[in-house]
Structure formats: structure tokens, C-alpha cells
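Example record

One chain of 289 residues, shown exactly as stored in the release files.
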Amino acid sequence: MDYHHEFRQAATELGVPEDESARFADLIRFRIRAGEQPDGIRAGQFGGLPHLPAGMSWPSVSPGAPLAFMASLDCAALPRIAGFALPEAGSLLFFLAPTAAVESCSIADEQKLARVVHVPADAETVAAEAPVDEFDDEPLFGPEHDLFARVEANLPDWLDGAEDGRSDFQKHLTRDMPHCAELIALVQRLWPGEKTWIGEDFLVGGYSISAQNSPETQLAEDDETGLPPGPERLYRWAEAEHRVMREWVPLAQFSVPNEEYIKGRFLIRHEDLAAGRFDKALSFCEFAE
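Predicted C-alpha cells for this chain:
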């Protein structure tokens, strides 16, 4: 569904100029919030044991060191969001070694400790049995419960703050928007009940939720070469971070079971998502005390 189009139509009915509503719409993201409350479509499971393709071994860091299974999503049941090219069928499985991932020293090192698996709809699958972990006694799966999905609108958190508290780049993004407050209220009216935290839910899409540096900030920091020195650097760095946000999207954000402060997060480039290259998804586990 094209929720951005729905928003622009509603803004036009309020008398907001089309160019202003279109620029504001660029700031809106739509995400899927899947939780235990049956107020949406059943779209997967959190915890429990996965169904793996026949003949596939349980994903592991190395022999004897399996990754913990986090959740599975039923792609066919997920709500469709225009511009967010999730697979139309099959399932997505998420595996993670949370404690090791949150302690990893680099983005590259962390990827050995996480895995996203897309199981095609026509693949023969079997209910997996949890393997023996020869190096750790952490559980390889949490308590199982169904996930029920609904769509919510998601605005950048800085948009709710005072204008004088925004960075120069954020002010640039909202320039010539005299109806900004009305448009924020319109989003909240069309899609009420947005939560700004992860909680016990499983989030797909939207903006990253971070207690510290966001994954997009880390990716931008990883590619700081070529930025000019002096006062212009902050603006150009924010511009680079915004570019990363447009190229990448959170594929999953969730609280790790049995770990009070650890949040699992997987990001993927839009082009890799559209091509089904889930081996390109990156893990950014966070300790969020």
C-alpha cells in the first residue's frame, strides 16, 4: 500500500501546497510493528525453534558454536508498504549471538555473529532441533509466541523538538515548511498510536531506535574520508548520515530474550533487499542500559 500517497492526498485536502507535503512525506517512514497482542495479522513467531530448509545446518559461528534463533517472519503475511521491497513469500529467520555481538570490536567482526536466512516458499523444511553449544550455556532460543503485525507511521525523533534545537542540516530539511506542525498532527491522526520504543515487539522498517550511536551514524563514521575540515564538516557529515539513512533500512529491531539490556538490530540496503541478498544484511547489536 502507498501510505505516502495517502498522506499527500490528505495534506492536499487540508490546503497544504503539494511541494511542501511531498518534502514532508520524504521524512515519514512506515514500519511494521509485530507483537504478542492479537491486534493485527499473524505474521511470524518470536522464539521457539525454527523450520530450516531440509539439509541445512543450524547457522553457527564455527563448529560447535551455534547462533541463537531469535524470530521468524512469514513474508506473505506481512503488510505491504510501497518502497519497502520485502519478499512476497517464504520466511525470514534471524539468528544472533547477542552477548558476543554486543562486545564485538568492529562492524566487520560482528557479522560473524549474526545471520539472516530467507527460506523460499517452495522449499522443503523440517523442524530443527537445537544443537549442542560446546562453548556457552546461553539458551539457543527463547519462549515461543506468535507475532501479530500492523503498520505504524514513524517520524524522525528530532522533528518533535524545538526548531532552535535542530542542527543546520535538519533545519535545511524542514526549510519552507510553514505547515510543519499541522503535518505532524496529520500523521498522528491518520496513524495514531505510534510507539517510539521497541519494547517487547519486533520492528521491521522505519527509523533505527538507538540509545547510543545509531547504525546509520556508525556507517557514516566508517566512511568519513573526503569530508572538508572546519565548520562545514558538521553539515557535510550530517548530510552523509542522511544519505546512509536513505540507502539503508532496518530489517529487524527487537529486544533479545533473557537479556534485559541488549537490542538486536539488522540493517540492509534497499537494493540488496529488493534483490533478496540477505547475506548483505548487517547486525548492529546494542547494549541499551
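Notes: The first strand starts at residue 29 and ends at 35.
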